[in-house]
Amino acid sequence: xxxxxxxxxxxxxxxxxxxxxxxxxxxxxxxxxxxxxxxxxxxxxxxxxxxxxxxxxxxxxxxxxxxxxxxxxxxxxxxxxxxxxxxxxxxxxxxxxxxxxxxxxxxxxxxxxxxxxxxxxxxxxxxxxxxxxxxxxxxxxxxxxxxxxxxxxxxxxxxxxxxxxxxxxxxxxxxxxxxxxxxxxxxxxxxxxxxxxxxxxxxxxxxxxxxxxxxxxxxxxxxxxxxxxxxxxxxxxxxxxxxxxxxxxxxxxxxxxxxxxxxxxxxxxxxxxxxxxxxxxxxxxxxxxxxxxxxxxxxxxxxxxxxxxxxxxxxxxxxxxxxxxxxxxxxxxxxxxxxxxxxxxxxxxxxxxxxxxxxxxxxxxxxxxxxxxxxxxxxxxxxxxxxxxxxxxxxxxxxxxxxxxxxxxxxxxxxxxxxxxxxxxxxxxxxxxxxxxxxxxxxxxxxxxxxxxxxxxxxxxxxxxxxx
Length: 468
Hints:
mainly alpha
């Protein structure tokens, strides 16, 4: 009896592994991919597997506001000078400007906050944190940074980036459209019937605006009068849109040793009326694909002993495992995103990295019931747009703040050092050993002198003998 029971248990285990393994294998493949890549993979699979069918009744996933500027790298694209970095390009221009030494140092420091796309990230308060400059000083040199080449560098939003490139013609129709109708323009591109209707609606808005100004006795510039008239034509509007599309939405893409990555977010964070940040999927890929019930019905009527039927059954199993993995991919991404956003509510409201709560990936894995490897695959290379004014985007793994010294984040340790050094006497500044003692006494932070020196350097603070 024992041998019979053992044999049954072994058979059950082997059968379970055979069913689960293909799904896990598909899930591991899908986890690092964004929704566009997953969509493309499923579409290719649907071409070769009759049991995977795309639901064409769903809304067109490809219609996105990103298409306004065609923010993709063409096949022929290569950096103009792979050996020249953006920092080198900017440093050469900054050194030629007629500035005081402090202004030049401030401007050089500010370039460190440029993203790979050439945008200024975070806020002036965040820039100033742990630095010898005040937020006001850093804000004052932003126009200097934005005056440099490439055009649009140092912008804090897409709209500001485009307007910087149109600053030599501020009253032109393209500048007007970017300034006041950027959202509407996203629906006006292309030759579809919907795009033509959107352009006609936009032309009507422009005509009404022109008529209102004339009725109120408002003075229009000659350029306005020549481009925005009651008879503004379709060709004029299309021409203006094409001029906007010819602008560079990411000024820094031509610099560096590799192509600037194109970010395709899968999640977004939005502020609810109750001052609570909530995360949701940008696009639900799972709704676009399902099993082909008609093909399954035909398969059940076939003779299972034939090779063709066995091959079709294998394709059905692959389709089932793929769609199960797709559902788990979507659920796992949302689950991790929801946990991180709920845990970092204070940071989302303040925008201050010092408010990030220590959240190592192991903690995330335990909280959502996933493995550390799965969480790592989800947060690595994935970004989270924060829907606010101005909008911003943060790497998802930046919300997984590791715990360093005494349960504090690296930014918090640096801020404590800044606080202590601001309180010290200029005659007798604190040594690293003294700072370590003060951190232990005042903040209960057990830390070694060597660790103090490390975080002091990261915060841009000079050693004691240079602070006299």
